[in-house]
Amino acid sequence: MNPNIAQTILKRFMPAKERIGAEIITTLCLEIPRISELVTGMPHFTPVMISTDVENKINSWGARLSRFIEINLKWFADYSSSYDVLRRQCRKAGQSHFEAKLHLSPDEWKIVRRTCVRVLIRNTTKIAITKEREMEAEKVEEFLTRAFNSILSETRSGLLCAAVEATQRLCDPLNGTSTGVIRPLSRNHNTR
Question: Where are the beta strands (DSSP E) in 65-146?
Answer without folding.
Answer: none
